[in-house]
Amino acid sequence: MLDQDLLPTPAEVDAQAPLSPPLRAAIAAHRETIAAVLDRRDPRLLVIVGPCSVHDPAATLDYAHLVAGAAARFADDLVVVLRAYLEKPRTVAGWPGLVRDPTLDGKGDLAAGLRTGRAFLVEAAATGLPLAYEFVDPVLASHVADAISWAAIGARTVTSPPHRQLASWLPMPVGMKNTVGGRVDLAIDALRAAGLPHVFPGIGRDGRVAALRSSGNPSAHLVLRGGPVPNYDAASVAAAANALTEAGLPSRVVVDCSHGNSGKDHNRQPLVLADLADRIAGGDRVLAGLMLESYLSDGKQYPDAHPLRPDLSITDACLGWSRTVPLLEQLALAAKRRTAR
Ligand SMILES: O=C[C@H](O)[C@H](O)COP(=O)(O)O
Ligand SMILES: C=C(OP(=O)(O)O)C(=O)O
């Protein structure tokens, strides 16, 4: 029995689910808008919102249309980006995401996962929303990167040199998360590495292993996601901003209201957000953006639930859409007040 399956190349998945020229132009414009928010050339607030993971593409597209409606409504004050996460980094083990296990049964049909995932990204991009993606496996980056407008290097991979080098090559702003243990200094090391040019092995469009050459990511930034204790409070954000300045980096941060900042309790996300919204309304300009884990319905289910609900997260618990809309309103008002100051 063969112990390997050949995967479609980036060019092959692109040919099956291509991005049209207008969509490519829209993605280029989204990347520039997000970079402008991070540079304070655009006074709006970045809001990265969406499910922990995509397990049902059709239901996630329904959710994306709701987000697109809200994004248009709040466009004067917010730049809303959809979490379109197709790979999940697990602490030990667990469902690794749609690309790695599209049938959710452990079969690991990566070829199908890449095709399904790519088709989802193209449809999600067609809603007009910028897409956010955590690049978990650098080998798969070239299959999806052209559809993505904001990237994360996550808390479990931020210390990895291949991920830092990948970030230096990715053509969109990349958020580096502090580690699971709460280390912000290691994320700052990652930002410094991502800002530099590198030559490193990766997968080219034809699927061959290639020497990729990067010129450094000009829009890499810090994402505070909490650790054993939260780090969204004013003192932690100020300490992170000082550390960024000392490292010669721009002092702007994105704060993740979920993960270590919510203790993985989705009911705490609105409390975290309310605190941040107050500070933004009060004129805090270090806070460039926020992340929220939100989906159609509130909470989560186990991935082996029968029947599996399309509208409920199978990884981290999310806020339901009806609880998300008032939070977007709150953030839009806070951003408007900050701009008016
Ligand atoms: O964001 C999702 C999870 O927090 C991440 O993939 C880790 O999950 P785990 O600790 O349940 O493996
Ligand atoms: C896994 C995630 O975050 P973190 O790396 O902060 O745990 C995520 O955002 O899905």
Automatic annotation (TrEMBL):
GO terms for biological process: amino acid biosynthetic process; aromatic amino acid family biosynthetic process; chorismate biosynthetic process. Stereospecific condensation of phosphoenolpyruvate (PEP) and D-erythrose-4-phosphate (E4P) giving rise to 3-deoxy-D-arabino-heptulosonate-7-phosphate (DAHP). Keywords: Amino-acid biosynthesis, Aromatic amino acid biosynthesis, Transferase. Belongs to the class-I DAHP synthase family. The lineage of its organism: Bacteria, Bacillati, Actinomycetota, Actinomycetes, Pseudonocardiales. The keyword Transferase applies. It catalyses: D-erythrose 4-phosphate + phosphoenolpyruvate + H2O = 7-phospho-2-dehydro-3-deoxy-D-arabino-heptonate + phosphate. Pathway: Metabolic intermediate biosynthesis; chorismate biosynthesis; chorismate from D-erythrose 4-phosphate and phosphoenolpyruvate: step 1/7. Residues 37-325 form the DAHP synthetase I/KDSA domain. This is Phospho-2-dehydro-3-deoxyheptonate aldolase. InterPro entries: Aldolase_TIM (IPR013785), DAHP1/KDSA (IPR006218), DAHP_synth_1 (IPR006219). Its EC number is 2.5.1.54. It comes from Labedaea rhizosphaerae. It holds the Pfam family DAHP_synth_1. GO terms for cellular component: cytoplasm. One of its GO terms (molecular function) is 3-deoxy-7-phosphoheptulonate synthase activity.
